Amino acid sequence: MNPDPHTSPSPAPGTRQSSSPEQSPSPEKIQLIFATNNQHKVEEIQSAIGTQLKVISLREAGIDIDIPEPHDTLEANASEKSTTIHRLTGNNCFSEDTGLEVAALNGEPGVKSARYAGEDRAFEKNVEKLLQKLDGSPDRKARFRTVISLILDGREHLFEGICAGRILTAPAGSKGFGYDPVFAPDGEDRSFAEMTLEEKNHYSHRRKAADKLVEFLRKTIP
Hints:
Elements: E1 31-34, H1 39-49, E2 54-57, H2 74-89, E3 93-102, E4 109-110, H3 123-133, E5 141-152, E6 155-167, E7 183-185, H4 197-201, H5 205-220
Parallel strand pairs: 1-2, 1-3
Antiparallel strand pairs: 3-4, 3-5, 5-6, 6-7
């Protein structure tokens, strides 16, 4: 549903403007199920979106499943998760898949970022493997890439966010999660794990993808 491009004139002095029960809800009233069991991602996405949307986790929605990520692209994995939840609930929902892409490793770990060192998804081991493979490499360029899959009224829409930076030679900081201790965005000497969530959102790949999601909803829903 596209917003009306015409602006209604102001009511004449002394007249009362009646409220319309047919008025569509604003984006601030929209609730979306976020297809993840990762509470860190829920907190980061909600922080990035702010009050624009109400993000409902799978746990809050009463859904207790682990959705597989069997595909070779972030886009396909994000779609897998959102379509699974939409199939189960029939509700508007979204998902995201994120990968760390390192130039010197031909894009590794990429779509396998969470399982880089094994199926147990232990990020300490993932970080250790990454640093070992980059040991001695002068090329530390890397980027985080997030793809959000939104299903709204039965139709899918994809949004991408990218944060370019570099891999540090050793972990630094205790905040965040995943590869945050070894990733510093362009223009920063600190790792993501040394930043507050608000500081991280200034650069964040998830924030950039989430901003596109919110902007789309603003244009789609009057």
